[in-house]
Amino acid sequence: MTEHARIFLVGFSGTGKSAVGRRVAALLGWAFADADELIVERAAKPVEQIFADAGEDGFRALEREAMASLAARTRVVVSTGGGAMVQDEVRSRMLDAGLVVALDARPESVYARLTSLTLGEGAESAEVMVRPLLDAASGDPLERIESLKRERQWAYALAHWTVPTDGLSVEQAAHEVVRAWARFGAARAWDGDPAVAATVTVESGAYPVFVGWGGLEQDLGRRLAETGFAGRAYVISDSNVTHPYGRAVQRSLHKAGIEMGLFTVEAGEKSKSLATATAIYEWLAERRVERADAIVAVGGGVVGDLAGFVAATFLRGITLVQVPTSLTAMVDSSIGGKTAVDLPVAKNLVGAFHHPSFVFTDVSALATLPARALTEGWAEALKHGLALDAGLLDSYESSAEALLALDPEITTEVIARNAAVKARVVTEDERETSGHRMLLNYGHTIGHGLEAAAGYERYLHGEAVAIGMTGAARLGVLRGVTPPELAERQAALLDRFGLPSSYAGVAPEAVLEAMTHDKKAAAGALRWVLLEAAGRAAVHRDVPSADVERIVRELAE
Ligand SMILES: NC(=O)c1ccc[n+]([C@@H]2O[C@H](COP(=O)([O-])OP(=O)(O)OC[C@H]3O[C@@H](n4cnc5c(N)ncnc54)[C@H](O)[C@@H]3O)[C@@H](O)[C@H]2O)c1
Ligand SMILES: [Zn+2]
User: Fold this and answer.
1) What pLDDT, in 10s, does the model give residues 58-89?
2) Rounded to the nearest whole angstrom, what is the distance from the C-alpha of residue 459 to the centroid of ligand 1?
3) Which domain holds residue 503?
4) pLDDT for the residue numbered 116
5) Which of 18, 88, 389, 525 is the most buried (most CB within 10 A)?
6) Pocket-testing residue among 271, 326, 349, ligand 1, by greatest number of atoms within 8 A of Cβ
7) Is the pLDDT of residue 451 over 90?
């Protein structure tokens, strides 16, 4: 994958290639290069002068040379001149060497941007061909933009991906490009090192989620070193995961020249406690851990939440890297910055928001995950498709067998897409204030009630969520919100992935009682996340308690 780690932004002038390119590079942690700037630098004269001295042919020759050297670099975002894609040699070089993304815009937007440079200060300042056209005395500039754009459209259409930028800010356009990279990168990642599947943008900055099949030992240490990290790393893992994954991470850090230590906690939810956190604090203090050091959490959600909580609180916060090894952790808990420990009275009662520097997911670790934990994890993954991503929902239906067999390529793609869904929601609503993150609670109202009523013994979280989604879908159908066919699609999927859709051994009254105690209950009235269409959920407040009672009773076997 690394040999393809390049993005070329092509497209007409005034589509924001430089400004967007700079932002994409920042989001991915790559370098940025502006092809026109390189040409100017090498020729040691401005573009207009190159044209005046050597004509367009002279400029194109310089452009070919510049592109050849840029295409030899890796982890770079290159913004190109508006004419680059039209040159056969340059075009095929870019298409071979990386992902080519065309930024498109309507001629009116191009005109507006070229005359006001709204999309980034000084964007495309070295752009050739169009500015002279705008300056020319004759004809209507808008018409000239239209005709030149039409002339070049065939070449832009050969890009791997096109992002229409009308109405988008630089930030939004950059995210679209990163998303395109995620799709392209993830699709090839299974036979190479993990690629960026998503970028989470939060108040404290942006961080990437790498997803690949394999690569833990080869790449993790290098990735950490590449962030400029110069401290020591403290790996926290559990008794099921230390061998082989904690050790692989250690070797990877060692290879990258990073000093490290390893702390192994007992596997299981019981370790998500203040007592274990204290033991880790003491261990870190003995080693004189400093703020420049990092905690690397290698394991499922228990290790991620616990080690994350320690990283959030020790010395008021040190660097954290999440290396999820369970399906739940890969698609859910490692992304989003929520860390916590349990108190005897309730789970996750003490916690903090603390985002990692990056998330590194080696999907191949799922091969050793116990079957029940794997099945449980699919519940949250299916939820992402049902509530937020119709395309993902289609993938579950078309690829269920391959996913259940952990086919490397398809599973990696699907986990990458799940990471992207979670990352998008967290980016839109970091602290659960706008209500968007609430959509991730689809199936959780009944699910949490059932878990609590059953004393957290009988049902794993994902199993309870599967039953909760069944309840929410039936409630949605009853209220006329959820199309019945969609509820049937969901039921068929849960069944195919081996998830339950009804409960036993718990009294419906106890479930109802526990539901009203759940922290997600807003001021007496429960808010319900209901499916309105495939991949589209919304919060509903007007659900009568009689309907809820009826559904919760129906779900009992
Ligand atoms: N922070 C969040 O946003 C968030 C979201 C969801 C869940 N959670 C938390 O996550 C926890 C549940 O996560 P979980 O289901 O991963 O539990 P877990 O960490 O206990 O992992 C499940 C089991 O699988 C083992 N395991 C993990 N990876 C393995 C691998 N690759 N091979 C073999 N064994 C492996 C673990 O040792 C454990 O026994 C809960 O505490 C929950 O509260 C947090
Ligand atoms: Zn959940």
Assistant:
1) 999 999 999 999 988 988 999 999 889 999 89
2) 14
3) 377-557
4) 66
5) 18
6) 326
7) yes
Q: What is the pLDDT of residues 180-198, one digit of tens each?
A: 776 665 444 334 456 788 8
Q: What does the block give as tokens for 266? A: 């007992």
pLDDT given for residue 186 in this prediction: 44
Same domain, 411 and 282: no
CA–CA gap between residue 435 and residue 326 (Å, rounded)? 27
Nearest Cα residue to 374 out of 413, 407, 399, 404: 404
Do 203 and 317 reside in the same domain of the chain? yes
Q: What's the gap in Å between 301 CA and the centre of ligand 1?
A: 3
Residue 133 has pLDDT above 70, yes or no: no
Higher pLDDT, 457 or 376: 376
Question: The domain spanning residue 101 has which CATH number?
Answer: 3.40.50.300
Task: Answer yes or no: are the C-beta atoms of 51 and 128 closer than 8 Å.
Answer: yes
Pocket-forming residues, ligand 1, beta carbon under 6 Å:
238, 240-241, 267-269, 272, 299-303, 305, 325-326, 328-329, 332-333, 336, 338, 347-348, 365, 368-370, 373
Question: Do the bridges between strand 195-202 and strand 205-212 make them parallel or antiparallel, or are there none, so unpaired?
Answer: antiparallel
Residues 51 and 166 in one domain: yes
Residues classed as catalytic: 316, 338, 380, 422, 432, 437, 441, 444, 448, 461
Helical H segments across 30-120, by residue range: 35-43, 47-70, 88-97, 107-116
Measured from the Cα of 365, ligand 1's closest atom is: 31
Write out the two tokens for 16.
């924001």
> Does residue 269 sit in the same domain as residue 293?
yes
Return the structure tokens found at 166: 């009308």
With the most atoms of ligand 1 within 8 angstroms of its CB, the residue from 240, 303, 323, 518 to mutate is 240
Say how many Å lie between the CA of residue 454 and the centre of ligand 1.
19
Dig out the tokens for 144 from the structure.
Answer: 């000239």
Q: Which of 181, 202, 227 is the last residue of a domain?
A: 181
